[in-house]
Write a structure and sequence with these properties.
Blueprint: E1 13-14, E2 22-23, H1 26-52, E3 78-80, E4 87-89, H2 90-102, H3 120-132, H4 136-148, H5 152-164, H6 168-180, H7 188-200, H8 204-216, H9 220-232, H10 236-247, H11 253-269, H12 273-285
Length: 286
């Protein structure tokens, strides 16, 4: 600190970047910055890494609200409801459709219990309502639609709004837009930033991409940390990378074994007889 004690009439403020020192005023902080800058930058990076390399409790997709099992990382095993935008696993969705056919019931959403939209126009109206309420998933959905239509500028705006609301999937998409210069100027730093935010939010694909970038930069220790976290989330690509790294001696036997166990546990947690039945049904009729 600057040496002035914090008393009733003087409230010391922390350096928000590193939390190492306290200042009595902006002037005090400005005068001390040349001496503090190096330590501040180092500690800020350490604090960022503590957050970045923490194993997420789950993926950014979360759990199916009906069966309460984690969603698989592959989006093809998940269905988005056209009424409320809620994600539901194919197992619950197919089983509900079978029940409605058996009992001659009207098609309703398993989550909000509203009648299923009759056409694309009703789906668009529902999406517009969700966007007006700043629903992150709705904003991301509209961003995806704009991007498919070639309107990258509007897509960027929607993804940015969703990302600001904490949507990891939108952060992940923004990383590609900054990398490729789609709807925005290319910016490597912002690409990395959005990948990191997506990874912190539980996106295993963003985590794997960070590992690949660190690997290309020959920062193998950081790369392996990313790949291990992604593998423990159920990431197949990350696990394959770790297999090759183990053969080259870039990862210890204990860490590799832990990654294998974590990967298997994450994959097993997403499985159920109902989901297997649904996937068999989909493969048969598509």
């Amino acid at each position: 600190s600057c040496g002035i004690a914090g008393v009733d009439d003087i409230k010391l403020k922390k350096c928000t970047a590193c939390n190492l020192v306290r200042y009595c005023s902006v002037k005090c902080q400005t005068e001390h910055m040349p001496k503090h800058k190096k330590d501040c930058k180092k500690r800020s990076a350490e604090l960022r890494d503590e957050i970045l390399f923490k194993q997420p409790d789950s993926s950014d997709l979360g759990d199916c609200p009906i069966c309460c099992l984690p969603f698989p990382l592959d989006a093809k095993h998940v269905t988005m409801m056209g009424c409320c935008g809620q994600m539901i696993c194919n197992g619950c969705d197919i089983e509900n459709q079978r029940r409605e056919l058996r009992e001659s019931l009207k098609s309703t959403c398993l989550f909000c219990r509203q009648l299923a939209p009759k056409n694309n126009e009703e789906i668009k109206i529902n999406l517009k309502r969700r966007i007006e309420k700043n629903d992150p998933a709705g904003l991301r959905q509209m961003g995806t639609h704009c991007h498919k239509e070639g309107d990258c500028s509007s897509a960027f705006e929607y993804f940015s709004k969703a990302a600001a609301l904490g949507d990891a999937g939108s952060h992940y998409i923004l990383s590609f837009m900054y990398r490729d210069g789609r709807g925005v100027e290319m910016d490597k730093k912002k690409e990395i930033y959005h990948l990191e935010e997506a990874a912190i939010g539980g996106n295993a694909f963003a985590r794997n991409n960070l590992g690949c970038i660190e690997k290309d930069n020959r920062r193998h220790e950081r790369a392996m940390k990313h790949f291990i976290i992604a593998a423990k989330q159920g990431g197949d690509e990350a696990l394959e990378t770790l297999k090759g790294a183990y053969k080259k001696g870039l990862i210890s036997k204990d860490d590799f074994a832990a990654a294998l166990r974590g990967h298997q546990a994450a994959v097993d947690a997403t499985k159920s007889q109902q989901r297997d039945s649904a996937e068999a049904f989909i493969q048969k009729w598509t």
